[in-house]
Amino acid sequence: MASHRGMVRVIPRTSVRFFKTLTEPYSPTISTDLYTQEKEPRFISLFQNDSRLKTITEEEAKLSPSLIALHARLNLGQDFPLATLARALTCDTKDGQHASNSSLSQVGKRLVKYHVTENMITKYPRLPIAVFSKAVNAYVGTESLSSVGRLFGIEVESKSPIDKYLSGETLETSFGKLRFDSAISKPESGVKHYGKEGITEDVAYKFAVRSIIGGVYLHKGESAAKKFIDEYILSRKVDVESMLKFEQPQRMLLRLLRRNNLPAPVSKLMAETGRHSVAPVYVVGVFSGDSLLGEGQGSSIREATMRGAVNALKAHYLYRPLNERVPSDPERKEPLYVDEGEVYF
Amino acid sequence: MNFRSLGLVQRGFSPVVRLQQQQIRNLVVYRSSKSKGGIRNPDDYLTSGSRKYELNEDNLKHIKGYLSSIESGKYQLPDRLLLQVITHKSFAHGKLPYNEKLSILGYSLFSMTTAKFALHIAEVSKARDVVDVVNSTGFKLLNRNSMLDVFSSLTGLAKVVFWKNPEPLNLDGASALNKTVERNTVLALIGAIISQHGTKSAEEFVINEVIQQAVKSDYFQPLESTA
């Protein structure tokens, strides 16, 4: 408890206006007087939607030791109120007394989706769309974000209200835990019931992580949110190469070269050993004109040719430009290369 | 042609020779009605309505004119990229550069910008809970597909798209233009602006042009009266 009090002192006791601390000025230059209250009052009025649900106050949030610990662990800084973190951990529930994280999650989702998309397009501009979507999903999908949430050390509120009452816990102590209506119930040992209402634990973690990102944007600005995404989401390793699969690589390579006005692929046996043994090895090179596009080896010429074509396609689709600065980086001066699209046959 | 049936494999022809022999053949393209196994003359199918697919001034003058008319040409794009922007994946079986990836990039920016813009409006109008703007009518309207439709119809982008009309008997492709193709073209234009001018410029384009066009039109009007 002593350490708890110590941590409280770090956070300033000045009252923070809830969600009114967009620290950085809005970056795009909006044309003068386009959307002012005076000029478009009715348009502006469409954006007013004050929820009647009460929000968790900073004073209430400070009563949760696990919330303070999570705040410190994520190094969110003094600009990020504990109340926002408490809201980020509160999912929509049937008997919810406080405003949930659904709005924050929406903001976070859009931010993370854009930054991951631009990052993937910058890094791998030629990926086929199906692989591209899979790779983006590997960063921002439920599985990925839920594991990020678990790595953050977010705990799930598993106690029922009656258990909490019996153990003498107050409502405020649960603000530091992930609260949601679970879709899965266990009516008896070894039996799981999947209900229609509620969400799974993974989805709840996903909402919490997105909401924390949304909160970082609101209170610390866009550059801090981008840094947060870089550190916690984009730092994860995704093996894009293993996602590429080709059913008919030779035909696909032919179409690709034809579209780029290059000579059709020619396979040439470059080396072989043990042709008359039980374990022959052939090395086949796939050429377009004089250029070697890919090389493959196999126990038959056909297998080696196919592997050569696959390697040639991989070399094309996994191309990475030298400049990996994303378009949102102000230091990027040259245009971003975006592929012309994959070929079909 | 089956080389095994010709007895070439048995006579000791290496695979290299076989593949090289495949290169030596005459390519004949045909016109008019379909012929099984034949290759169609590209001039026959590289058209959309009465327009022929080419990198020329005629095909690009509309979109170039629009881009040069706003912000004194701040968002101008190279011709080759513009042609890619107005080419849908359905055109020529995806053989030519098409706009799918640009539209994916554009969509992710568009949805992020609408959220940021709505938060900005809530901040300006001093809402009690800024983030609650996500549940407002205005935010929902900003994210409807029909808002992109408004922009594409007002700027006339729908008329210049190269795509394959699913109704081949309808020669006037523009009248039956699929709404999805229209939206993808608008999003691809946003994606192209990101690629050439950066994220910030593209956000400005969305706010000062796409949203502004919708505000100027009667897109928000019916709901404004009930709000």
TrEMBL record, chain A:
SUPFAM superfamilies hit by this protein: dsRNA-binding domain-like (SSF54768), RNase III domain-like (SSF69065)
GO MF, one example: structural constituent of ribosome
GO biological process: RNA processing
One Pfam family from the record: DSRM_MRPL44
Claim: Mitochondrion is one of the keywords in the record: yes
Family: Belongs to the ribonuclease III family. Mitochondrion-specific ribosomal protein mL44 subfamily.
Protein name listed in UniProt: Large ribosomal subunit protein mL44
The species this protein was found in: Kuraishia capsulata CBS 1993
Source organism phylogeny: Eukaryota, Fungi, Dikarya, Ascomycota, Saccharomycotina
From TrEMBL, chain B:
GO CC terms, sorted: mitochondrial large ribosomal subunit
SUPFAM superfamilies the UniProt entry points to: RNase III domain-like
A molecular function (GO) term: structural constituent of ribosome
Domain RNase III: 79-212
Top-level taxon: Eukaryota
Protein name: RNase III domain-containing protein
One GO BP annotation of this record: mitochondrial translation
Organism: Kuraishia capsulata CBS 1993
InterPro entries cross-referenced by the UniProt entry: Ribosomal_mL57, RNase_III_dom, RNase_III_sf
